[in-house]
From TrEMBL:
This is Calcium-binding protein. Keywords: Calcium, Repeat. Coiled coil: none annotated. Residues 5-40, 67-89, 96-131, 139-165 form the EF-hand domain. GO terms for molecular function: calcium ion binding. It comes from Streptomyces tsukubensis. Pfam families: EF-hand_5, EF-hand_7.
């Protein structure tokens, strides 16, 4: 049974991933998401390929484990169940989810200082179709040590919390904005 907090987050994630907004996830939706992420890499082929590969792994997990009625599409309920049971399981989480975070961080950190400023973070989020209001609020929470930048470690911690934590107050819940209003 998926916790209420996790269901809420996976709901928010479903809405973000469902790029054509038809209420079903398809390979096309996931490829569209991968395209948004890959565009962040601005021609840096290694990061772009890593992102596309990770989204493809993610989709294959959803299709294999989530598409219980075999129609090649993943419904909201199928998504939430497969996210909990398969995508975020220890053997898959790194290759499907954290791989995207690592490639994103590498692509965005153009000056190589290993951190994201508020401007870099909000601009990245808006290119991924997250509203600036939500990402600015999220930045505050994700910058756990309050030094004004998000380190690679803070970013990874936020992702882990978003996907794995059932704690309503986990700062990483804010990855896509407030979960209560977004769900
Ligand atoms: Ca869709
Ligand atoms: Ca289905
Ligand atoms: Ca920080």
């Amino acid at each position: 049974m998926t916790s209420a907090v996790k269901s809420q987050k996976f709901n928010t994630l479903f809405d973000w991933f469902d790029q054509d907004r038809d209420g079903q996830l398809t390979q096309g939706d996931m490829q569209a998401m991968a395209g948004l992420f890959a565009a962040l890499a601005q021609g840096e082929r290694e990061s772009a390929t890593a992102m596309r590969d990770a989204f493809e792994r993610w989709w294959q997990l959803l299709l294999t484990h989530g598409d219980t009625d075999g129609d090649g599409r993943v419904s909201r309920d199928e998504f939430i169940a497969a996210m909990e049971a398969n995508v975020t399981s220890p053997e898959n989480f790194g290759s499907a989810v954290l791989a995207i975070a690592d490639a994103t961080m590498q692509a965005l950190d153009t000056d190589g200082d290993g951190v994201l400023s508020r401007e870099e973070y909000v601009s990245m989020a808006s290119r991924l179709s997250v509203s600036p209001v939500n990402s600015a609020a999220g930045f505050q929470k994700l910058d756990r040590d309050g030094d004004g930048v998000i380190s690679h470690e803070e970013y990874r911690t936020a992702l882990s919390e978003f996907f794995l934590s059932a704690d309503l107050d986990a700062p990483g819940n804010w990855l896509l904005g407030p979960i209560d209003s977004a769900a």
